[in-house]
Amino acid sequence: MKRLFYIVIFLHLTILPVLAEDDPFAKARNKMVEQDLKGRDINDTTVLRIMGKVQRHLFVDKSQQKSAYNDHPLPIAEGQTISQPYIVALMTQVLKIKPGEKVLEIGTGSGYQAAVLAEITDKVYTIEIRKGLAEQASAKLKELGYKNIMVKDADGYFGWEENAPFDAIIVTAAANHIPPPLIKQLKDGGRLVIPLGSTTYYQTLTLVTKIKGDDLRVEHITGVAFVPMVGEVQKRR
Ligand code: SAH
C-alpha cells in the first residue's frame, strides 16, 4: 500500500508535469474549438478533431504564442498573417477533402494551414512566393515530422503543373480574379477556395467546383480580409 502511495506521488511529481508542459496550450485550443468553431458553423468532425490537435502556437513567434488560440489573425514574418482559426477551419471544411486526395495550397505563410490539410490527406503541395517564409515553413514542418508536405518557393499563380491535377486547391491570399492555371490544374469534380475581390479591403470567400471542363459552380461563402496575393496576379486585369 505504501509502495503504491509512493508510485502515485512519483507520477504526480515527474510524469504528469512533463505531459502538461508538453502542451501548455491544450486548454486554450480546446476552448477555441468549442467556442469559436463548434459555436459557429464548423460541424465536420474531422476538421474539429484536427483543429483540436494541430498546435497552432508552434507556427508563430514566441511573443505571439499566448494569443495563438484567440479568435483573430496573427502576424507572422515579412508583414504577413496567419488567418483566424475559424477561417482556417471553414476553408478546410468547404473543400470536403478525403484521405488520399491531392491538395495544393497557394500561400504557405507559417505552414499552419498546410499542417491542418496534411492531417486529412497524405498529399499536400504548398507554394510560397516569399523565399524566407518558404524556407522557415519548410523547416518547421520538417521539425514537426510532416513528411507529406512539399513546399515550393515560387509564384503560385501558375500552380504546380508537374503534380497536377489536384482534387482541391486552397488560395490563402486575396486576388481580384482566379488564376486560370489553377482552374486548369483542378480535376473534374475538384474544389477551389479563394478570397476573391478587392485586395486592399474585404473579399468574398468563394468556392468554385469544377463540374467538368469549363463548367464551374460558384458559391459565395462569407466576407473575409486576407493579405494580397502578389506577383503575376497583379499584372493581369
Ligand atoms: N496559409 C498561411 C497564411 C497565408 S498569408 C498560414 O497558414 O500561415 C498569405 C501568404 O501568401 C503570405 O505568406 C504571402 O507571402 C503568400 N503569397 C502572396 N502572393 C503569393 C503568390 N503569388 N504565390 C504564393 N504565395 C503568395
Report the count of strand segments.
Answer: 9
Order of helices and strands: HHHEEHEHEHEEHEEEH
Q: Report helical residue fraction.
A: 25-40%
Name the assembly state: single chain
Spatial sequence of strands, sheet with the most strands: 5-4-3-6-7-8-9
Shape: globular
The whole-number mean of residue pLDDT values reads: 93
State the fourth-level CATH superfamily. Answer: Vaccinia Virus protein VP39
Total helices: the number is 8
User: Please, how many domains?
Assistant: 1
CATH topology group? Rossmann fold
Spatial gap, N to C terminus: 78 Å
Explain this structure.
With 237 residues, this protein is of the alpha/beta class. The protein has one domain: Vaccinia Virus protein VP39 (Rossmann fold, 3-Layer(aba) Sandwich). The chain contains eight helices and nine strands. The strands form two sheets. It has a seven-stranded mixed sheet. Strands 1-2 form a two-stranded antiparallel sheet. The chain is globular and about 75 Å long. The model has no long low-confidence stretch (mean pLDDT 93). The structure holds S-adenosyl-L-homocysteine. S-adenosyl-L-homocysteine binds next to strand 2, helix 5 and strand 4.
